[in-house]
Predict the structure.
Amino acid sequence: MIVAITRGVSTRIASCELTHLDRQPIDVARARTQHAAYESALRDLGCDVRALPADDSLPDCVFVEDVAVVLDDRAILTRSATATRGSETPAIAEALAPFRDLVSIEPPGTLDGGDVLRVGRTLYVGRTARTNSNAIEQLADLASGYRVIGVDVEGCLHLKSAVTLVGPDLLLANPRWVRPFSDHPIVEIDPSEPHAANGLRIGSKLLYPASFPKTRRRLEERGIAIVPLDLSELQKAEGAVTCCSLVVEVDSPG
């Protein structure tokens, strides 16, 4: 069984943290409609969606992926480099507690879950403005049984802005932002769609933004079944498909 933890869109999402994008107006009602369609797609793929209410004091609260790294036997609560995001943790910790033992990244480490890409028993961790070397060292200690490898990232917010897992051992990547991993086959994004490397694999399907048709064709040519989603308002907040859920595999309903 797959549990997907989500959280609603804050009325203050237009005040979200931005690193690489210029600030644009965000239609909150439309963002909420798009997020509801995202949750519906997760349900259609068999996920038990545990939807938490938005906290309107937290502009980025919809982006739950950054708050924890979920492994087979534990969840590692991250520590944001952005002071405004630290208050997102308690609600996510409460939602994860029925399914995983919880441990935490401690100061001076800073880590965003969007910088952690799991491929089998390897965790690739981006070195970015949000994730530092101390946190990568702590993650290596906390993630017993996993190999942890630091990865240099440039030009984007998170490692998973640049590369995600889209098949059993197949990665989708923007090679301008991250050096392709030699241990894995790669589908490169279409160069005209630099933000197209983020997709969320659920079972045999890939949740994927509708705004990247050229890269989508490359994926479909590799036999990947796409579930397209309009996430245009959330993308203005530097969000992507993986950002909006924490996916937890469980043996039985919690």
Notes: The chain has a mean pLDDT of 96.
